[in-house]
User: What shape does this take?
Amino acid sequence: MANTIRFGDLVRSAGRPQTFTLWSGDPKKDRTLQQAIRKKRVLTVFQEPTSTRKPFGRIGYHQKDSAIYLLFPRSLPPDTESRVIGINFDLLDEPVAKTSAPKKTKKVSPDKPPVRVPQSRPQKEFRVTLRRQLTKELVLTVTAPHQSAARQEALETARNTPLEFDPAEVQIKIVNVSAA
Assistant: This one.
């Protein structure tokens, strides 16, 4: 079996990655991706949308429909057979918006200020995967002849006890954002 590499170790050695979306259908036509592949800065993360398995990665570019591509600022280790585990999407770097040229305004008489009409951006659909977690401890006192019977009794009691919690105790994390 191939070795495993922790995602956190890659982030420590190669910097915080950014997600990369392949907008054109052909990866060979995308200069940013090709440059990152040549410099060995690409990690392909495999995450099946309907699977309960945790996402894992492979160093390098591996084309697959449900893959997410992460571009690191520095080169990754040359070991392309290793499995990258412990993918933490909270460690991703947010991309910086590129600045564009200033908008041209029509010339207007000096006594009237120029009027700028705000241009609205077209709305896009995104599929956002969220994980809501609640950790609630329940301490029970049960009477049983031995430890395994006490466990069974406690599980049965917990199943029949309604869960009461404060919504502030629920943690919500964004797991994945992709274009729909």
The chain is about 15% helix and 20% strand. The two ends are 35 Å apart (CA to CA). The chain has a mean pLDDT of 81.
